[in-house]
């Protein structure tokens, strides 16, 4: 499994547009083989930082999903929300390998 962590610098005045953008991407990730763990929006502290986490079974599966960027009409429409509103000022992606609790430790109560 590969998990992508995205750190967004957003325009706080465009939070509603960012929420529309995020909702579309959650749907697209889920529809194309990934698991979206959600977007995390500012609540306290910095008002211009948001995060997203989503996973794919493998890097190859993620790369297959990426082939749709700029080609698939739904992907283009989702990006149009960002581009037309200016809700995202910049973003950084980091790929992570999750270490999850094992079934054995969950059963034994560890």
TrEMBL record:
Classification via InterPro entries: Dimeric_a/b-barrel (IPR011008), NIPSNAP (IPR012577)
UniProt domain NIPSNAP: residue ranges: 7-99
Pfam families per the UniProt record, alphabetical: NIPSNAP
Name of the protein this chain belongs to: NIPSNAP family protein
């Amino acid at each position: 499994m590969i998990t992508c962590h995205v750190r967004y610098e957003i325009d706080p005045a465009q939070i509603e547009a960012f929420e529309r953008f995020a909702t579309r991407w959650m749907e697209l990730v889920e529809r194309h083989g990934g698991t979206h763990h959600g977007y995390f929006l500012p609540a306290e502290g910095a008002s211009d930082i948001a995060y997203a986490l989503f996973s794919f079974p493998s890097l190859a599966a993620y790369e297959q999903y990426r082939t749709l960027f700029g080609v698939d009409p739904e992907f283009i429409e989702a990006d149009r929300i960002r581009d037309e509103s200016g809700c995202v000022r910049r973003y950084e992606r980091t790929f992570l390998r999750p270490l999850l609790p094992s079934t054995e430790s969950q059963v034994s109560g560890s």
